[in-house]
Amino acid sequence: MNRLDRQSFLGPDSDTLLHECTVGLVGLGGGGSHVVQQLAHLGVGGYVLVDPDRIDFSNTNRLVGGTLADVEAQALKVSIAERVIRGVQPEARIISVADTWLEATDDLKRCDVIVGAVDSYKERDQLEGFARRHLIPYVDMGMDVTDLGNNGFLISGQVISSLPGGPCLRCCGLVTDARLEMEAQAYGVAGGRPQVVWSNGVLASTAAGLVVQLITPWFPSSPEFVYLEYDGNKGIVRPHGQMGLLKGRKCPHHPAEETGDPLFDIRKHLARLESRSKVAEVERVPLWRRLISFFRNDCS
Amino acid sequence: MDANKEFESIKTLCGAAELHQECGKPVVLLPGFRFKSGGKDLSMDLLLHPSAHTGYVTRLFFREKVAGKGRNWTQHQVLGSNWWAPSWQGVKAEQAWPAILCAHLRGVA
Fold first, then answer.
1. Annotated domain spans of chain B
2. CB of B90 within 8 Å of any CB in chain A?
């Protein structure tokens, strides 16, 4: 019996497709850690995990896989995610980048899908722009808690599947210059925003479902732009009003002529590859050999 | 504002300048641009974004941080590569591109 038998309805080749694909996950906190766990169970074979942060005690209310021992050890969030994946798929292909996604662009370029679970509009905007430029489908997820004064708090969120050529986060009105300006003015004062595990879970499950739609032949028609909104107080996920209006529209913000890397220089690219392979070569030599070599060279 | 006309005026400052587009807006690459910072001559690739970007009305991106100058440097992805920009607000878009460039360079002078 195959581990994935009970999801065979996703299509005859779905196991292979899931195994062969690589998903980039940017942000491995409350939202991203849920997505990683689900993709691992689904059998996604390749991962580019990106998050510069280490777990802290306040993350344990929502970071899937994170333990008190991880807090004690100040474990990297990418390491926790890697452990969660390997617990189900020991042979998974994982590239972990404990840095900002801007330092992981070479690896993210090779992904089949990128999932963004980032906090700021600036990050969303630029990550989506990067994905568009490299013709990679981008799934964005985010949640917020709004103080309604005497009426309590509203938990809300959204999941958007942004495909090359189709409507983008700007088309949806999620990213606007006004929001970016407000964010820039609050530079350095952004504190911890309210987050809860179950709404992160709903949004992450929705995002994982969209990733599966993109990869497998589960749906007979081609994947399309999706914009779902979440009302956490009512426990409802439904198509956002904009979804129907925007469907089929071309995106004016990321025109077709803006694809690819306009500053690509083959000489710089080859030099970078060469320096990477030299580093890899050094890392392959055991430490004790490197030490002997160092002392021999130093003493001769 | 006529982007082509503005670009021609930028080319008088940097003959190797290239006009590109990001999110449908013009962006000017200034390869190996020479400028003064803290009394020293510097040369590096710059990217002039003469319209709104990440909440700023205009922006100038630097290939690398200028040591000891500018504040709150942040990294950005523009034209498929990474760039640095200091927090330097208030350089209006309603002026000639060379004037925008000079106003931003004052932030690292």
1. 3-108
2. no
Q: Which residues contact A5 (CB under 8 A, 6 or more apart)?
A: none
The first and second tokens of residue A153, run together, are: 């708090």
Q: How far apart are CA A33 and CA A63, in angstroms?
A: 6
Q: What is the pLDDT of residues A236-275, one digit of tens each?
A: 999 999 999 998 898 999 999 999 999 888 888 888 788 8
Nearest neighbour of B55 by CB, restricted to A105, A181, A252: A181
- Residue A258: list chain B partners with CB under 8 A: 21-24
Query: What's the predicted TM-score (pTM) here?
Result: 0.89
ipTM above 0.85, yes or no: yes
Cα Rg of chain A (Å, integer): 21
Q: How many CB atoms lie within 10 A of CB A263?
A: 16
The answer to whether A58 and A193 have CB atoms below 8 angstroms apart is no
Q: How far apart are CA A270 and CA A281, in angstroms?
A: 16
> What's the angle, vertex CA A193, arms to CA A188 and CA A197, rounded to 5?
150
Task: Choose among A102, A187, A258: nearest Cβ to B82.
Answer: A102
Q: Tell me which chain B residue has its CA closest to the CA of residue A177.
A: B55
- In a mutational test of the A interface, the residue from B65, B77, B79, B87 whose CB has the highest number of chain A CBs within 10 Å is B77
pLDDT tens-place string over residues A66-123: 999 999 999 999 999 999 999 999 999 999 999 999 999 999 999 999 999 999 999 9
Query: Which of chain A's residues have a Cβ under 8 Å away from the Cβ of B24?
Result: 252-255, 258
